[in-house]
Design a protein that fits this description.
mainly alpha, 2 domains, globular
Length: 237
C-alpha cells in the first residue's frame, strides 16, 4: 500500500461512518416531517424536528451488521478505485458517486424509499461534473441523454403496466435514481444496470418468497439492486 492511497482509505472509513448515520437519520427525518405536515393540516402546531446524535449512534449499534456492511463497502470502494496511488479527479468523482449509491441502498433497505433530497442533487452533480475536463467522463451531451432517456425508458413501461393492471410496478424514486445513474454513466450503462438489477432482484425476491412461503407479497426494494449493479459498473470502467 502506497502512502498516497492511505488518505483515500481513511476517507472511505470516514464516509462509511457518515453513511451509517445518514441511513439512520434520513428515515427518521422524513417520518418526522410527514407527522408535522399532518399536524399542520389538522391545524395543530407542529413540533420542532430534532433528532439527537446519541439516538443515531444507538440505532447504528442496534443495526451492527448493516453498519459494518456500509463501512466495509465504503472502505473497499475507496481502496479499489484508489489503487495503487489514489484516484485521479474523475476517479474521485466516481468514488463520491459510489458512496452515494451505498447510502441510497442503505436508506431504501431501511425505509423503502429513495428520497429526492439525495437523488436530485446527485443527478445535477453528475451533469455538472461533465463540464470540467478533469472530471469529465461521458461528456455533457451523453449525460443529458442518459438522464432523460433512462428515466423515460423505465417509467413509460411501468406506467403502461399500472394502466393495464391498476398496480404500480415501482415507486417514483426508482425512476429518479435510474436517471441519476444515466447522468453519471450514460444511457447504455444505465440500461445494463436496470436489466441486471431486475434479473438479480427478481431472482432474489422469488427465492426469498419461496423460503418464507409468502408468495403473495410482490413488493421489494429495487433501489439496493440498482445501487449494487451501478457499483459493479463503476469498478469495471
Amino acid at each position: 500500500m502506497t502512502a498516497a492511497l492511505l488518505p483515500w482509505l481513511l476517507s472511505g472509513l470516514l464516509a462509511g461512518g457518515m453513511l451509517v448515520l445518514l441511513a439512520e437519520w434520513l428515515p427518521l427525518r422524513i417520518e418526522a416531517e410527514d407527522e408535522q405536515w399532518r399536524a399542520e393540516l389538522l391545524g395543530q402546531p407542529g413540533d420542532a424536528i430534532a433528532i439527537p446524535f446519541a439516538q443515531l449512534v444507538q440505532l447504528a449499534r442496534q443495526h451492527q451488521m448493516a453498519s459494518l456492511a456500509i463501512i466495509t463497502a465504503s472502505l473497499s470502494l475507496a481502496g479499489w478505485l484508489g489503487w495503487p496511488a489514489g484516484p485521479d479527479p474523475r476517479g474521485a468523482a466516481l468514488l463520491l458517486f459510489g458512496w452515494a449509491l451505498i447510502g441510497l441502498a442503505a436508506v431504501d433497505l431501511r425505509a423503502r424509499l429513495l428520497p429526492d433530497a439525495l437523488t436530485q442533487p446527485l443527478l445535477w452533480l453528475g451533469l455538472l461534473l461533465q463540464l470540467p475536463e478533469a472530471t469529465r467522463g461521458i461528456g455533457l451531451e451523453a449525460a443529458l441523454i442518459g438522464a432523460a432517456a433512462s428515466y423515460l425508458l423505465l417509467r413509460l413501461p411501468c406506467e403502461l403496466y399500472a394502466l393495464l393492471t391498476g398496480r404500480e410496478a415501482m415507486g417514483g424514486g426508482d425512476y429518479k435514481m435510474t436517471a441519476m445513474i444515466g447522468a453519471w454513466l450514460g444511457l447504455g450503462s444505465a440500461m445494463e444496470v436496470v436489466l441486471l438489477a431486475a434479473l438479480v432482484g427478481s431472482g432474489w425476491h422469488v427465492v426469498r418468497l419461496w423460503g418464507t412461503g409468502q408468495m403473495r407479497d410482490h413488493q421489494f426494494s429495487f433501489g439496493p439492486f440498482l445501487a449494487l449493479m451501478a457499483l459493479f459498473r463503476i469498478i469495471t470502467l
